[in-house]
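FW: tagging you since you asked about this chain on Friday. Here's the raw sequence from the shared folder, copied in full. Didn't touch anything.
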Amino acid sequence: MYVSVRDRPAGPDEAPGRRSRRVATTVVLLGVVSLLTDVSSEMVSAVLPLYLTAEIGIGLLAYGFVDGVYQGVSAFVRILGGVAGDRGRRPKWVAALGYGISAVSRPLMLAANGMAAVTAVVTADRLGKGLRTAPRDALIADASPPGALGRSFGVHRALDTLGAAIGPIAAFALLAALPRAYDAVFVVSFAVALVGLAVLVLFVPDRRVGAGTARPAVREVLRAAAGPRLRRTLLAAGLLGVLTVGDGFLYLSLQHRDDFAAMLFPLLYVGTNVAYLALAVPLGRLADRIGRARMLVAGHVALLLAYLCAAGSAGGPVWTVHTLVLLGTFYAASDGVLAALVSRLVPAHAKGTGIAAAQTVVVLARFASSVAFGALWVAAGRQPALLGFAVALALAIPAAGWLLRRVEEER
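HL: got it, structure written out here
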């Protein structure tokens, strides 16, 4: 892998089946922006479950609602972000607005002392994420050769995940030095988010995406992003997403099972992110070779195994590490891979909207999953809830594979 000296759109000679070793400067710069932003956001995410349940004192069902909001509220603006980026053909500035909203939400957490206030702050943060994600991914797809999309998204997600690994370590260090000083975590998080926003505004090229000179109409963009191949992909992504338990619940499950996970709770996020970081580029490259749809399905097999490890009665470091590695493998095989898959199923002038549609389906499905899993845990207990989701996911994986069969071969 190397970084190109300058960006350029993929040429016609760079066919989808041809694998280039080029990773564009835009991809790397956006990766740096995501790295810094994820240091900021994961500092908050790493302490949020304990902050809400231990410091503020909300129950598991209420936490399930907040976690669902965290997972799903961004769905309300993802399509808006995708369409705005596609229509204006300047997705950088739509992404910058989203990053800015998320940055501003960090210090607001200092004044959030109740359920309603915390939910409002989390909502603002996730709305910012929803607005920025599709335009950013459209920039990555536009700057990358078609045959190297998996690699490019893998490089971006690796940098993104490096930040996600650093964030919990920073939060853990702050809380170790200043016990229960959650306000220090929120202030440092805000400062890092501002640096990430500055990198985006000052250094990321303002690429004009899509072909031609005319701005496409909203109806044209939406119609282009609603082809049959994309519809089958969205159905498969939604089916798998509704059975994807939020990370916070898996970590709380590990904490409830044994003292090892409870002692090092913020560092559980680090374990997942280290595995994600190590595997994002290799699995992205493998997806380019074997097919991104196949890799997406395989990633959910890793998630199924993570459920089984977390549900087991045996505790201790070994099973905790197995769970975190499998969860990181799932993200490496699904997050960037889904965006890379979708970007090849829609026309160039609707890439952002197509990616946003897939992301919207996933986050809405995960919102439903979080609420359902929280209710099931309260009603039946930790282990039955995890095993129930594992059985359902085992049935959904072959169904999703059937929906995605030959989706990349059709033209």
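FW: The chain is about 75% helix and 0% strand.
HL: agreed, and The first strand starts at residue 2 and ends at 3.
FW: great, closing this out.
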